[in-house]
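Anyone up for a design puzzle?
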């Protein structure tokens, strides 16, 4: 077994456990064990488990983005300090000071890519599970030879086998599979682009947009979808379906976060303030504090009583 196979072995084992568990669940409620819908729903279940497990990392990603906003003014100072200096020494000093600032703040400009990077081994693990299933090979875990054949022969919409790719369909001239695979590649690329665009266009402050980090994320905005667009034609439909469902999860998750917890100073934050103001729920920080003084009721002063008068009252 090669190094990559050794690294992916435990990931493939977990993938098979989750897939077989959901396959058993849907089969036990009456779905056909060999039907495409059963295995497609099992892939959806795999996405839900993986993305739910990534929620803590996503929360850390949001916190890291907030810290990036906090260090934006310091980044501008560093840029101004080395503005116009293009010698090697100045570039190295600027890079060193920038990295020290990130380290001190406990953040990193590439933190937004962490959930994506974590999913890549799962992505390739599922790819290998499908490849082995296509050959009728039992998996490393509970994926028996019988289940492997069932998984490989399962079809999306009844006409597109999960193990098939656009390239494979093109080689045999299967137009229907080519159309489905191409449509999934387009949807996968578009959803990836829209997800990144939500962050860059709506959830960044003006200070962050003026920093080098923004330029890096703008580059990733266009590079990542292109990578998936070209590589997607070689991926099996089952793997693309996993990635597409995962992208939809990310889109909805980002939409809810940007709508309810936007980055301060961003376009989304201004839109949220306007929305709350229309609903009468916005509490202005600059609103004057009204102090209500309690009105004191004057009390009648009790006159002292002399001894002679007190004796008369006592009679």
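Challenge accepted. My sequence:
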């Amino acid at each position: 077994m090669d190094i990559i196979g050794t690294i992916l072995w435990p990931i493939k084992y977990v993938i098979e456990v989750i897939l077989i568990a959901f396959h058993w669940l849907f089969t036990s409620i009456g779905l056909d064990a060999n039907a495409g819908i059963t295995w497609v729903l099992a892939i959806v279940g795999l996405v839900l488990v993986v993305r739910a497990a990534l929620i803590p990392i996503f929360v850390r990603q949001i916190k890291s983005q907030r810290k990036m906003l906090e260090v934006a003014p310091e980044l501008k100072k560093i840029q101004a300090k080395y503005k116009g200096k293009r010698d090697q020494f100045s570039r190295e000093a600027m890079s060193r000071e920038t990295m020290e600032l990130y380290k001190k703040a406990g953040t990193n400009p590439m933190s937004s890519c962490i959930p994506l990077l974590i999913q890549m081994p799962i992505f390739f693990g599922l790819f290998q599970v499908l490849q082995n299933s296509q050959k009728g090979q039992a998996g490393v875990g509970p994926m028996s030879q019988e289940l492997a054949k069932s998984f490989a022969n399962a079809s999306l919409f009844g006409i597109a086998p999960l193990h098939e790719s656009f390239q494979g369909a093109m080689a045999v001239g299967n137009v229907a599979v080519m159309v489905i695979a191409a449509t999934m590649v387009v949807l996968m690329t578009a959803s990836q682009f829209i997800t990144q665009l939500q962050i860059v266009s709506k959830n960044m402050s003006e200070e962050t947009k003026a920093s080098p980090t923004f330029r890096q994320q703008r580059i990733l905005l266009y590079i990542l979808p292109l990578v998936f667009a070209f590589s997607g034609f070689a991926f099996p439909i089952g793997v693309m379906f996993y990635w597409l469902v995962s992208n939809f999860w990310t889109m909805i998750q980002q939409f809810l976060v940007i709508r309810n917890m936007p980055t301060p100073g961003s376009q989304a934050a201004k839109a949220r303030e306007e929305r709350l103001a229309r609903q009468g729920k916005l509490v202005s920080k600059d609103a004057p504090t009204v102090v209500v003084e309690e009105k004191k009721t004057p009390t009648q002063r009790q006159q002292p009583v002399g001894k002679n008068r007190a004796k008369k009252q006592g009679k």
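A detail worth pointing out: Residues 3-267 form one domain.
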